[in-house]
């Protein structure tokens, strides 16, 4: 286990005190400073300029309790792979900006190759803003964060089944944690003839996330579960929009299974993080609730291709095909579920007063800029399945 240096959470509180951001007609939402990339990069420097070297609230080597009145100490148990890791990264930034103390426990070893990829390679942005970052095994979370650590809120953004999450839940309950949050998945919904999925729709009882949600509800009075779908945003290391860019920049057809009119949901990760942050700051409203952690707009597969091409400054060529006729597995040939898969964030709007800021055409421009700067568009790639589809079609 390795520890990074931490600055005072109270410095962030001093910087953001009184700040409010317009969030819809006539409404203001507090403590959501991190909706722009410019602020993400400017925050550490701004804090240093405004407060200087303020003392850090510490117990041993771990920040354990925010000092400002009404502020909380939050532990984020963060996965070390897949698309969800970036949720914890953005949430930590939101909470730090609001003056809370944040510890991020990442699964595994700080020296592993996974930590060389984003968002882990950008953890200095967290520590410079006052976070503590540690690595370890969630099965022994107490040892990973230090025996003296104490938290008001724990978020599990790692486990997909009860075996993985139960040790964290049990430790949190024994440690007197007041609120437990869980990042679940909208993939647990049973396919419906009436999309979009809304909170309360039937779920697959066999899904691991369902068992976790039930167990948390049995152990905590103040708990909430968040069900994301596909996400976009700087720091995400799971291919999504990159799959489309890979073909568009090379002038290749983009093979889409079926008609391309299938509807799905792609949210900017800042929206997912802001929803979680609101639950931390309004535990009474969030208690015992399920939230679809998604944006409030859908997109078709055809529309996504067109938006990706526009972001790249190119004209799209879409090739529709029947996977069965071509003899390919759509799960291997396409990065999305080949079906309508769309949830709606009704509960977050009604209960938390949350508002979406996802603007997919603009967000894709941000992602293409990163894609272009990475040099991925010039790398040699094989498109064997694409070639099989093109030949058959």
UniProtKB/TrEMBL annotation:
Q: Which domain of life is it from?
A: Eukaryota
Gene Ontology BP, a term: monosaccharide metabolic process
Question: Pfam families recorded for this chain?
Answer: Epimerase (PF01370)
Q: Name one GO cellular component term.
A: cytosol
Molecular function (Gene Ontology), one example = UDP-glucose 4-epimerase activity
- Domain annotation NAD-dependent epimerase/dehydratase: ranges: 82-293
List, alphabetically, the SUPFAM superfamilies matched: NAD(P)-binding Rossmann-fold domains
Which InterPro entries does the record associate with it? Epimerase_deHydtase, NAD(P)-bd_dom_sf
> What is the protein's given name?
NAD-dependent epimerase/dehydratase domain-containing protein
The species this protein belongs to is: Oryza meridionalis
């Amino acid at each position: 286990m390795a520890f990074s240096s931490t600055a005072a959470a109270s410095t962030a509180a001093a910087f953001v005190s009184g700040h409010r951001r317009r969030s819809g007609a006539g409404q203001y939402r507090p403590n959501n400073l991190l909706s722009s990339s410019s602020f993400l990069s400017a925050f550490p420097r701004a804090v240093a300029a405004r407060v200087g070297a303020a003392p850090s609230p510490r117990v041993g080597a771990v920040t354990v309790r925010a000092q400002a009145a009404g502020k909380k100490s939050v532990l984020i148990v963060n996965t070390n792979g897949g698309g969800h890791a970036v949720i914890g990264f953005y949430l930590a930034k939101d909470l730090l900006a609001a003056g809370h103390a944040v510890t991020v426990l990442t699964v595994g070893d700080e020296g592993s190759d996974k930590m060389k990829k984003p968002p882990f390679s950008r953890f200095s942005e967290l520590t410079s803003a006052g976070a503590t970052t540690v690595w370890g095994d969630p099965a022994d979370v107490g040892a990973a964060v230090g025996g003296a650590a104490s938290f008001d809120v724990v978020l599990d953004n790692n486990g997909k089944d009860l075996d993985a999450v139960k040790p964290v839940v049990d430790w949190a309950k024994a440690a007197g944690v007041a609120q437990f949050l869980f990042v679940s998945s909208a993939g647990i919904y049973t396919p419906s003839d009436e999309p979009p999925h809304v909170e309360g729709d039937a779920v697959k009882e066999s899904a691991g996330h369902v068992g976790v949600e039930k167990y948390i509800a049995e152990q905590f009075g103040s708990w909430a579960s968040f069900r994301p779908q596909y996400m976009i945003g700087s720091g995400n290391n799971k291919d999504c929009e990159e799959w489309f860019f890979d073909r568009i920049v090379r002038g290749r057809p983009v093979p889409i299974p079926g008609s391309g009119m299938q509807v799905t949901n792609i949210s900017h990760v800042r929206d997912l993080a802001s929803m979680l942050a609101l639950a931390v700051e309004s535990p009474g409203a969030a208690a015992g609730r399920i939230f679809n952690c998604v944006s409030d707009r859908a997109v078709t597969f055809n529309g996504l291709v067109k938006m990706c091409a526009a972001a790249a400054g190119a004209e799209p060529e879409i090739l529709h095909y029947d996977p069965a006729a071509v003899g390919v597995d759509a799960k291997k040939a396409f990065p999305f579920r080949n079906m309508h898969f769309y949830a709606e964030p009704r509960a977050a709007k009604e209960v938390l007063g949350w508002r979406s800021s996802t603007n997919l055409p603009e967000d894709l421009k941000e992602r293409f800029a990163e894609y272009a700067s990475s040099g991925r568009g010039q790398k040699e790639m094989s498109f064997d399945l694409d070639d099989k589809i093109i030949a058959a079609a």
